[in-house]
Design a protein that fits this description.
This protein has twelve helices and no strands. By secondary structure, it is an all-alpha fold. Keywords: DNA damage, DNA repair.
Length: 219
Amino acid sequence: MAPSPKELPVPPQHAAAYWAEACKHLVKKDRVLRRLIPQYPGEALMAHGDAFVTLARSIVGQQVAAKSASAQWKKLLALLPEGLTPAQLLRLKVDDMRVAGLSARKVDYLVDLAVHFTEDRLHVDAWGEMDDESIIAELTAIRGIGRWTAEMFLMFYLLRPNVLPLDDAGLLKGISENYFSGEAVSRSDVREVAEAWKPWCSVATWYIWRSLDPQPVTY
């Protein structure tokens, strides 16, 4: 039996306005989330940072261990005492960024990202009105940003409610463990499970991640 609205956790102040409505829907529609959601009271997906910093950090963190990514990020920030902005990054020397531990490819990606912002190639002010796929198309035109990174941006920066990151390893693992007794799952399996989540796939995904990790996922 689904928990009544009074039994559901009260969303924290930082939660998106839709969080309570999404949780109410999910506990009615999905047996796994009916069990999971009450286990994490006072928690919700949290937005932080600004657009450029969020995307830059995702590039720095690509294909390296979390500890190495954190160290490289700190070294990069140390080169920018006035703060990380597109204009400030473009003033850095390539050699300095390389000394911070960044590969030549990541330096190129960061520069391309900064150029997109400084030359107004992105419709930042219009993102609030643009649909998810249009924003993904715009972001993936930047070197070094793939669909997964764009989807994380939609979820954690723009707080879009219905993102289903099919390439996310954590989501695949969580669905495997919670719905298929640990058996490997395909994209089709994920889509089938997520039919009951719509239009709140972002919220459901966050709780599936939360079931695997003692700390809330952030990007």
